[in-house]
Automatic annotation (TrEMBL):
<protein>
    <recommendedName>
        <fullName>DUF3987 domain-containing protein</fullName>
    </recommendedName>
</protein>
<keyword id="KW-0175">Coiled coil</keyword>
<feature type="compositionally biased region" description="Basic and acidic residues">
    <location>
        <begin position="600"/>
        <end position="619"/>
    </location>
</feature>
<feature type="region of interest" description="Disordered">
    <location>
        <begin position="567"/>
        <end position="619"/>
    </location>
</feature>
<dbReference type="Pfam" id="PF13148">
    <property type="entry name" value="DUF3987"/>
</dbReference>
<dbReference type="InterPro" id="IPR025048">
    <property type="entry name" value="DUF3987"/>
</dbReference>
<feature type="coiled-coil region">
    <location>
        <begin position="155"/>
        <end position="182"/>
    </location>
</feature>
Amino acid sequence: MNQSNAELLSKHFSKEEIQKTLGVHIDTPGVATQQKKLNNSAETEWEPPIPFDEKSLPPFPSSIFPNWLRAYVEGVAESTQTPIDAAAIGAIAILSTALTKKFYVSITPEWKESLNTYTILALPPGNRKSSVFKALQEPITAYEKEERERMEPLVSEQRATLKAKRKRVEQLEKDYAKNGDNAILSEITTLNAEIDSEEILTIPRFITGDVTAEKLGVLMAENNERIAVLSAEGGGVFSNMAGRYSSDGRANIEIYLNGHTGDYTPIDRIGREPILLNEPCLTIGLFVQPEVVRDVPPSFDERGLMQRFLYSFPPSIVGYRKIDPESIPNEIKNQYLTNIKTMMQLQTGEPVKLTFSQSAHKVQLDLRQHLESMFKDGERLADMKEWGGKLAGQIIRISGLLHVSEHIGSLSPGNPDISKIPTEIGRESLLRACLLLDYFIEHAKEAYGVMAIDETAEDAKHLLKYLVQNGKQKYSKQDAWQGTRGRFKTASRYDMAINELEQRNYIKKIDRNTKGRGRKSYDLLLNPMPTIPSIPRNGQSVDISRITSNQEKDPTNNLHSLELNNDSEKINSRNTRINRKQQETYFKPNDSKGSTNSRNSRDEFLGYENKNDDGSELI
């Protein structure tokens, strides 16, 4: 990771502490370089390819989670054959859904952070986003169903009682109008006071999806000013924000802006009472296609909505998935279901204030100073000041989520006592959250790049990927068209992609020796050492069936109970193996001095040599 990040952590943690907190080691083979020669076209001279400025984004460090949650996140990734980022980002949204308005973090008397988060994970279609969401949401949807069944008779009874009282008031008002009896007036006054003082019961809701801004306000007003917008197909949510159902077609994003910060939000409604939200706390967790991020209205960025999101752009592993993956062990799944339900059952009149321990307080001061230095000209966040300005608060929110999730297993399910959660966040929880700095910074850069993406460049990457993966040196233009026509609906778009690759020195057009009249065709000759974008990155192979769940015997909650396997001759991408020969073809040689690959610089982030005693690389 980044050298300045290493300095931040090494101020507060020794090598042994960080190693203990990370908990697991895996051997991640380095990226092999390719030294092919063009042996069938000796007369052809090649210039080095001009990259698409696409770098390998860091994978989500699942070691930030406590044992029970990490085991489930990695189990979901294995069973669904999806990037671990999907389950991890989804897990953050689930924690926020369960804990918002129950805890908050107080940094100074004037500054506090609630535990709600806004997250976006972008993956192309066919990546089983719905399966991941379903696995993560299961305990919340089950609890919501239980609460609905419990509350429905109570709500019905209250409605009947209030209806009877209102009818009684109507009759008494008629009687009073006839004779002006003061006793009748007294009864009217008493009944109205009873009606007004009644706390209206509602069927609880914790999750919603594709709703209008007005309906969202109603749901929040009925549910203690909190709710989560969670969707595995989040494009519809952005369409609603943009005013799909509004009468004038105008965007209405006030509740989304204020729901992140907890600012007062009045919602005026024609012909009905206004909705007044004093401190709304909205959680948003969306899985979308990358095009959704690209197509958001400029006003969303201009008004600061997109700067409230944490982004994840993992590579798709479609085409490299196991056909018969392992299922999640019942022990791991049951622990997840129990702990999330326990979080949902926590009851509190007012949110519990969490503060930092003395040592953690020093870390958060350095964290903020560290981020402040990134806003200087030429530094990492110089061009993303508004998004980066919220990052310290985002990391602090996640540290609060991790802190509660570390201790939730010590509470009794069914009737958990919220007072048994320690109110002081320690160094370790903040360290775990700080390990996400590089991840979210690099993925946010990718998100902001996608927002201004060049469609021709994306087409060219798609064509280049096809040419290299099929392993041939030369293709006819027609053959390459046939192989990629699912993307290229017009010849002009296909030609533009070819021209883009030619300009970047990835291919050359070689005229075919054709005779007769008609349009001349050509072949595509591939540069011997191309760079292929968006191929699944190196990863770790996790044997989830060997994860122990005996957390109560592990008070430090380090993560040595995970058994991770490595095959020195294979590279794994979310438990999907690519052999070295394929790796040499698919992965860009990483020999440039200015590389920003987070895996290669993780030793710098942690402040110690990134090697085990046997020479293998630390996680």
